[in-house]
Amino acid sequence: MTPAPSATAARARSAAPGHHVSGPGPAQASSARRAGRALLKDFAEVEQLQVSTKGPGDFVTRADRQAEQTIREALMEARPSYGFLGEEGGPVEGEDPTRRWIVDPLDGTTNFLHGIPHFSISIAVEDPHGAQGKPEITTGLVYQPLTDESFWAEKGRGAWLQDQRLRVSSRRDLSESVIATGIPFMGHGNFVEWNRIFGAVAPEIAGIRRLGSAALDLAWVAAGRFDGFWESGLQPWDCAAGILLVKEAGGFVTDYRGTDMAIERKQLLAANDVLHSRLHKLLAGALRNQ
Ligand code: IPD
Ligand code: CA
Ligand code: CA
């Protein structure tokens, strides 16, 4: 029988003595914290607005835009030559063609709007042309303001939760695995495809979760809290930082065909190597005669 994986804290290994943990870039970390503080204040207000007749819709839109502006100003001040792709403001080209920020200032907007305490800020750095002429994420930070947890990764140097090294879960049996997903909703996504995959995966696993922040779903795969994740239709700002986190924590991230084109094809399957291959077989079977 597969040994039961231990809790995240135990799975995440402390940095070896003498090993220097650099942490997310100071601009990334401080802008996320600053925007996070503002979001927390606004979240408290949103909880009050649930019962008002007007509802929290406009207020949340403002909070979201304000968070992006805070992050953008801080990042552009720290690295004026980088380009910028944010969910709210659209793309800005930088003088340096090898670096751009990819930012989701509030991932989990529906949760935030409904007073559900699960949302995050995602900040990645991308080299749009990469080593092989293909876009490459070089650093990623997913920050959860409510728990003050910073999940961060640097290409080739590992993934970390604060100063604890992260590893994906070591489960090998689907029957013991908890898998996260994003479910299509009004105006978004492909219900037929999602239903087929759900029908193939759900009977094989211990549980499915839909928590509503793709960036955190991926960070939690990196931390071994989830054993896997699939979703289609994600934008680069939802998943760029999270993809690097999973890869640097030793996991696999592909599109539904199993190739390294998750962002380009807007299909994402993430898990450890063994579960990835099992899930990929189930997905391929479910989508074969579409
Ligand atoms: C959404 C969240 C959600 C995912 C949606 C995204 P938003 O981002 O990541 O988990 O299922 O596809 O659009 O709108 O909250 O930034
Ligand atoms: Ca998002
Ligand atoms: Ca968002």
Alpha plus pi helix count: 9
Helix-and-strand structural type:
alpha+beta
Low-pLDDT segments, ≥5 res: 1-20
SSE sequence, one letter per element: HEHHEEEHEEEEEEHEHEHEHEH
Principal-axis shape equals globular
Oligomer: single chain
Q: Mean pLDDT across all residues, rounded? A: 90
State the strand order across the main sheet.
Answer: 1-9-8-7-6-5-4-2-3
Cα-to-Cα separation, first versus last residue: 36 Å
Fraction in helix: 25-40%
Measured on Cα atoms, how large is the radius of gyration? Answer: 19 Å
Q: Which percent band covers the strand fraction?
A: 15-25%
**What ligands can be seen in this structure?**
D-MYO-inositol-1-phosphate, calcium ion
**Number of strand segments:** 14
Question: Main sheet?
Answer: 9 strands, mixed
Descriptive keywords:
290 residues, alpha+beta, 9 helices, binds D-MYO-inositol-1-phosphate, binds calcium ion
How would you summarize what this structure contains?
The protein is α+β, with helices and mostly antiparallel strands. It contains 9 helices and 14 strands. Strand 7 and strand 8 form a beta hairpin.
